[in-house]
Amino acid sequence: MTSAMRNRPLRIGILVPQGEYRWNGRLPRWSDLEAMARLAEEIGLDSLWVVDHLLYRTPDGEPEGIWECWSLLSAFAAVTKRITLGTLVLCTNWRNPALIAKMAETVNEISGGRLILGLGAGNTEQEFRRFGFPWERRVSRFAEALAIVHGLLRNGWIDYAGEFYTVRDCLLRPRGPRSQGPPILVGGNGPRVLRLAAQYADIWNTYYDFTGNRASGLGPQIEAFRAACRDVGRDWSSVTLSASALVAFPGHGRIYGVVADPVRGTPEEIAEEFRAYARAGIQHLQLRIEPNTLEGLEQLGRVLEVLDRAE
């Protein structure tokens, strides 16, 4: 049953835990993540999202390992049946952009057309340095990569020569279940990235770092995106608006990387905050839940039951 059939005012997804301490203090194994994906479908979530990082740092400065994004996404495509799968977001500076388009088309095929391809420039210098990727001019590199990925997915062919990437007479074959490839999500709030989102994105995303983790903080971010659309001559209503939010349930441990107060409360109170996002224009909400475990997911299920009731 779709969220629309359940009176759900917007689509709801979760960010899966990928880091060493993110399963309420321990490393999630693949068996944990597979169980989470299956439970996410069972409770009626709309989407499942993976982040793209190579090495976190804890608040104490210690290194924290993380499972690789695209490998997990491919596995989720094979073990789920209904739920939408997305990257929030894949760093184009770590992979050749023509290869990204090829990877996306293949996972879209495995999933039966359930992929959202979220793309970004990357934002953590130490990861770039440690793994040998160039940090300088990463947004300029992202702009070229985005043009190549978009061109290949939409048209199946591109011939492109830029400062950073050159692909000559490149064909994307075979094609998956969508004639123009999966929808592209661009996440970010800087002026250049907003402009790129306005040019290329089907979905724009703002992260809770920029909104204070409340629907009430969305206004300036959405207006900045709409202004970017006006600048490039894009109808902003043709782009789906999405946002992330941090939600804390009873029983969570230490929450790493917190920059805003988590949403807390009864299922009714949390559901009302989700409705506020919908009223603000958000059509898809990606949640980081704590505890980010099966128990936390079960508590989210109770919020969804409230959210799905007609107001």
From TrEMBL:
One of its GO terms (biological process) is alkanesulfonate catabolic process. Residues 12-248 form the Luciferase-like domain. GO terms for molecular function: alkanesulfonate monooxygenase activity. Keywords: Flavoprotein, FMN, Monooxygenase, Oxidoreductase. It comes from the Bacteria. Pfam families: Bac_luciferase (PF00296). The keyword Nucleus does not apply. NCBIfam families: F420_Rv2161c. This is Putative dehydrogenase. It comes from Thermomicrobium roseum (strain ATCC 27502 / DSM 5159 / P-2).
